[in-house]
From TrEMBL:
Lineage of the organism: Eukaryota, Metazoa, Chordata, Craniata, Vertebrata
Domain Anoctamin dimerisation residue range list: 67-129
Species in which this protein is naturally found: Alligator sinensis (Chinese alligator)
Protein name, entry field: Anoctamin
Residue ranges occupied by any Anoctamin transmembrane domain in the UniProt entry: 132-696
Protein location: Cell membrane; Membrane
Gene: ANO9
Amino acid sequence: MKDEIMLTPWREFPVEEFEVLVPKIQDKKLFYGVRAPSRIFRKYQWLLRNPDRGSQNSSTQEDVLITTRIRIVNFILQNTEINSQEKLRDLIKEKVFETAFPLHEEKEQIEFLKHKWARWRRMCCRQPIEEIRSYFGEKVALYFAWLGWYTYILALAALPGLLLFIYGIIYFNSSQVSKEICEANTTIMCPLCDQKCPFWHLSDTCTYAKVTHLLDNEGTVVFAIFMALWATLFLELWKRKRAEVVSGWELYGWDEDEEELALELINNPEYDLQKYQHSYFRSMIVLLLVLLTIIVLIGIAHALVIYRVVATVIFSQSDSDLIREWANTLAVLTGAVLHYMTIVIMTKVNRCVALFLCDLEKPRTFSKRENNFTVKIFTFQFFTHFSSLIYVAFFLGRINGRPGNYVRVAGKWRLEECHPSGCITDLFIQMATIMILKQTLSNVVEYISPWIAYKMRKLRVNAKSKVQVEQEAEDPCKEQWLRNYQLNEVNVFSLFNEFLEMMIQYSFTTIFVAAFPLAPLLAFFNNIIEIRLDAIKMVRLQRRTVPRKAKDIGIWLQVLEAIGILSVIGNGLVIAITSDFIPLQVYKYTYSPCTLGNDTNIDCLTGYINHSLSVFRVRDFEWHMKLQDLAEKQITECRYRDYRNNDDYSYSVQFWHVFAARLAFLIIFEHVALCIKLIAAWYVPDVPQWVKNKNLEEKKKHLQEELSVMDHSTEV
């Protein structure tokens, strides 16, 4: 920093009350070390009755936690105006100052966190939540407490998911539906594209049918109901866990608005109160812009659909037999990779849009701004991640028309079709690809980027900086200041980013888990690494974050509750629409050989594939389709997946039976699952009884002390 500028003294605080250490450095950077006077903390204790200790008679600076002192000093630095009406952030933008940050301490506490927490070898060890709270503040401690609890409870979901997957592997070759597909050597299917695509035999997709049964079997419905119950129990048990964690922090009487007002008054006794305001016009503008952004995100999902349609045509016309055979699967797989790339790009765009919308709203406080930002960015990220998945789950193969009357993109390319055994494998491929890429590449980048930045910054500073201190008394400070300066800068939303990442993962783990039973297992292993990764970043690679006080995880709890409701709806729709569970049951109890009661040894699903395929006359194809092998093999009819009449191609009675059964199942499933959620929420108290009793005893003790003081007082 070329200009040596001292901050203008704060109102009511004479310059001599501050200890300002200014060691000069040869590369023209000047470090200001600021330590606030003790009477600031006395004011804080008096206004808030010392929430750090729960007593009212404290008067020394040492009684205030170091995290609270850092928070107070940071608030004053950020909100004090100099003579030009500029604040610290304005001076940083104008390059007067480069940055401002609290220091990592050179004490046993940080060494304890480095060796007992922020190490890869401690992955399976319990987290020291109290030590994290004492060093980084309550908000960071609650994040790690929540993440640890979420990971612990994930094990309960990962085990059934793994067992379901193993069950599918064991009975990989035993499904009657798969057997019929593998034996359908004479069943000729309609071409998958308009140009150069041949007629094909249903038995060609034998392996795909077996994979589908691995995911879509009898246990899928049970697992979906279990996960709906798991999501509810997780939330209720977390509320209990949070109450236990914060029971010794004495935060039940703490109010965020009251503390912010106290800090404003400490900084400026003449502070003008910012009252609550609401502008319907501004809210309408923000709402319209949010809807416009969502429409854009849905449009991107449509672009991915068009890519898969075009890719399917290109792969189907390939000279390679292998590529032609797996054309649909390759289109879904490459589309999933492209989807991941759009997620990476749109995450940055969504952040900028959400911040812009928050600026339009003009929130009253930082916490209100953070809440508004949270709602918007999560909404945008949800549509970015799940718009394409929603299409694959609920629209793929259902809006593409039929042979002779296909729905086409731009009047040229046919929409994708589902495999005769169902679309659930396509959803599985899409989810598995995105989740694996996010939990590998994203985590690698999340760790490598700050590590490389730290090493490069350290090399650059060490090469250029030769420190010469004018006063020997300042010598102990210089090394610590430089070491902290070499660390990576902490973004004000750094903890927010970690929460957002976990919320998206939680959405993947719950909403479409019926199609991807391994999602909880992948999330479990990822989180074990994520906890230590975040710890290493905070302790070893980043400057110390400004501690913030909190008694819960804030608006993220409402986000989790919303995801829990979406998980019930999503899993119900996956089973009712994406899965073949309902058509199989309708056939089994309405049309199968078992309904005749003649032979009890026959499998009740015998004949299902023939029943679920409709017949199309080749002469009714569109005139521009170039059909191969038509004259050679004298093909007059082909089959396609649908329930239609053979004469006029209208929907058959079976279609309406399946449609009614899907609708009935969806209504019953969601009502039963939601009732189970409500019962579980009622049955499990949010706060354990021993925590309530402890608070009651503390209140009694406090009142007894007040009575004792009054009895010994000489005043009337």
